[in-house]
Design a protein that fits this description.
The chain is an alpha+beta fold and 178 residues long. It has 4 helices and 10 strands. Helix 2 packs across helix 3.
Length: 178
């Protein structure tokens, strides 16, 4: 359970909501998202307006809705009849300079990040491990200042599955470098 809580805090979501099971909600989103997928006890769908997301919490737990756009993935975390886990201690590092600092920032998310080469390599290694854990070892992940680049996905569905898998390992927003 503690490991799951740490993964939930891996990076700050674009939005965090607390809802009750069975209580539907409609959230405004930016236009341009082409698909939505969920993890956890939540059903979500993009409404025909193009800028609204229907959220239908199913049961108690923490869930995520991933909205896929051409160059970004927007993540909405939903606490359903429960509280979000508390973040870990504040990082003692001022930048993501190595694997130890990467681990600190992963445990306590922040949206102001400065990377050094070894820290970026630690993030890429963690993302590749998440792909292997998800049964997608044939997909390679690359990181650049412009975002994440995936190589080897068979189709858009597998690419979305890979992006969901690496989300916990990526610090900051999940942008795509295509």
């Amino acid at each position: 359970m503690i490991a799951a809580a740490a993964l939930l805090l891996a990076i700050p979501a674009d939005a965090r909501l607390s809802l009750r099971a069975g209580a539907h909600a409609i959230e405004k989103v930016r236009p341009g998202f082409v698909a939505v997928e969920t993890e956890g006890p939540l059903h979500a769908e993009l409404l025909p307006s193009g800028n609204e997301l229907l959220l239908e919490p199913q049961a108690k737990g923490i869930a995520r809705a991933f909205l896929f756009g051409r160059h970004e993935v927007h993540v909405v975390e939903v606490a359903i009849d429960t509280a979000f886990p508390e973040p870990g201690p504040l990082p003692s590092c001022t930048s993501v300079k190595d694997a130890a600092c990467y681990a600190q920032f992963r445990a306590h998310p922040t949206d102001k990040l400065v990377f050094e080469l070894e820290g970026l390599q630690a993030e890429a290694k963690a993302a590749q491990q998440e792909l292997a854990r998800a049964g997608l070892p044939h997909i390679e992940v690359g990181l650049s200042p412009f975002g994440v680049k995936l190589k080897g996905a068979k189709d858009e569905s597998e690419k979305r599955r890979a992006l969901r898998a690496i989300y916990p390992a990526i610090l900051g927003r999940l942008r795509l470098d295509q």
